[in-house]
Amino acid sequence: METLPENSSPVPSSSAMWKNYRVVSGHHGAVRSVAFDPSNSWFCTGSADHHNKNMGCGTGVLKHTLTGHIGQVRALAVSPHHTYMFSAGDDKQVKCWDLEQNKVIRSYHGHLSGVHCLAIHPTIDVLLTGGRDSVCRVWDIRSKSQIHAISGHNETVCSVLTQGRALAQHPQERCFASASYGDIKKFKLPKGESGDNGTVVLGLEEGIPSNKRNQGHWIARLPYTLSHGSRLVTCEGDMTIKMWKQ
């Protein structure tokens, strides 16, 4: 097997079959979001049951259950710089969790409706959030102050970069990927050229049973590798988390 460069991530083959090797249960509502620890040792999930759960990447074993939201948890992100995890949901709340104490240490107030997405700036202590109030808000992580309120959308803001649930930039190539219910597609920058309606990076129908497709899948690929292999995690409307490999 080809040796991968350090801190690189393999590109899934569009023709390879993906095998579901583990199903993780524990949530009591549809699982709405997933995010990975930058060290690739664990991942976290957010659910319609109002809970966040932290699980081991290799085993899927539950490490912690974090409670504090009073609505569906729609978005999660783990800081690459601090021992913080951020969560947001239908209760209009954006929370910062200290993972050494497993408790909320800051809340960011300002959204007028449910919060559907969030992202952490890669180099400075800034958090971006967006939601049903059609506004993207920029926060100072430390002071909890709102730095900007970026308006212009007329409907729900569902994704925000630097990183989001449905959009991701390639670390080296000038391109980005978008995820939908059916597949993941690759687009070229700066014009968003997509060839034949987007290059399919992964057709979910190839590996995911057809009877699960209509339940909705929230997809995340591990940022690094496990035993030089690629892994996928899907968060399901059937209250499970599924782990896949080629």
TrEMBL record:
Entry keyword annotation includes Repeat: yes
GO cellular component, one term: catalytic step 2 spliceosome
Listed CDD domains: WD40
Pfam family for this entry, one: WD40
Keywords: Repeat, WD repeat
Signal peptide: none
WD repeat boundaries on the chain: 24-49, 66-107, 108-149
GO BP annotations listed: mRNA splicing, via spliceosome
Family under the similarity heading: Belongs to the WD repeat PRL1/PRL2 family.
Protein name, UniProt field: Uncharacterized protein
Organism the protein comes from: Coptis chinensis
